[in-house]
Each structure stands twice: as C-alpha cells, then as structure tokens.
Sequence to fold (271 residues):
Amino acid sequence: MENLFDLQVLSNMLTEYAPKVVGALLTLIIGFWIIGWITRIVKNTMEKRGVDETIRPFLASLVNVGLKIFVLITVAGMFGIETTSFVALFGAMAFAIGLALQGSLGNFASGVLILIFKPYKVGDLVSIGGGNTGTVKEIQVFNTVLVTLDNKHIIVPNGVVTSNVITNISGQGIIGVELSFGISYSSSIDKAREVILRVGKECPYVLDNPAQGVVVAGMGDSAVNLASRPFCNSEHYWDCFFYMNEHVKKAFDAEGIVIPFPQMDVHLDKN
Fold:
C-alpha cells in the first residue's frame, strides 16, 4: 500500500513537473544557443567597427553573461520560483557592488566612451591624464597604457583621461616638430635661417609639403630665438626632432654661428 502511494506520488510529480523540466531544458538549450549567436554578432560588429582588440573579449563576455542571467531568471520563473524577489536581491547586490566600485565603474564608463568616440587609438603618440606623454600601447577596460620614449609604462585610469585635456600628437598622420634655436646678436639671422633650412632638406624624415619655415620668435636677454616647424610622418617624430637638433648644432659650429649662453657683465665702481 505504501509502495503504491509512493508510486502515485511519483507519478503525480512526473506529470506535474515533467513538462516544466522539458520546457526549462529547451529554454536553456535554445536560449544559450541564441546567446552564442548574438555574442558572435557582437564580436564581428566590434571587429568591423575597429574596436580595440583588447576590449573585445570583455565586452562580448559582458553581453554573454548578462543574457545568460536573464535566461536563468526566466527558467526559475517556469518552476514557480518568485523571480521578483530574486531580481530585487540581485539589484540590491548590484547597487552595493556599484557603490563599492564607484571609481572602477567610472573608469569603465570612460573606457567605453574612449572606444566610441576614439580620441586616440593604439599606436598614437598622445599627452593625456594631466600631461602624461607616450605612445598608446593598450586601451584596457579601466586604464590606458602608455609607453614613453625610455620604455616606461604609464598606466592612466580612463576616468582621469576623459576628465582632462587629451592631446593626440600623432593622430593626423603628419606632425609638425617644434624647434627653437638661439643665436647670438652678432650672428647673421639670414645665414642661420639658411643653415636650418639646409639641414631640414638633408634630414631623411622631413617632408617637402608642408614646407619648412624659419622665423624670428623673439629677442632674449642674450640670444635671438629662431623657431622652425618641419613636418614629418607621425612615427618619425622623435627621429626628426633629435636629427634636427644635432645636425643644426654641428652646422652652426661649421658656419661660425654662435649659440650664446647666459652671461653677466659685472662692473666694479672704484671709489
């Protein structure tokens, strides 16, 4: 009699829950398959739009996990579990975590803005985060990684980046190299200009267009300051900068053009 009752209870449970179990399994299988399909579409879309490859896996996994949580909540509802309290609990946890990670979430949101508006990309020479200058190595979820000329890694939080002025030095493909040379008041401006332009023509990195110019930028206490801005391809910025400074100095020495240094005349009054 007891066995019969157990079989009856088991039969009733199977009759009641079997359709729900089958429906839940089908929902999980089909839902996860659709989520995989959506995730692949998201990855392909990001690749076509040129989203930085370091951020693609994170964003794709974020979409994947979010959709899977939605499917799991739906499956729980199919078994009669009160999902409203579950969602409320999940929301409270998310709110608490959000408060604890407020700064990190701000950096994440700033990283998303950087990826959308693209003020710079990997490989650009930039000045960001209040004056940190270097070549962009990575645009991560929370930080931007710069590499300086002396191979130092600077990790700048994305929130700091978007809250400061962003200077993309090389983003246009062609860049002007700001140069300044001081000559003595006794030296010829025209001759110094000729030397600087000649060195620019000899420099393998300086472009013919836009043309290089040399102007008098100001009169210092002990020097006439000449300014020049030769243009080069962005990747040759430092090569051009160092070449011009070294070879202009050598050419000035060869031509007898004096580069002055600060000096002071002292007059003794004999009483």
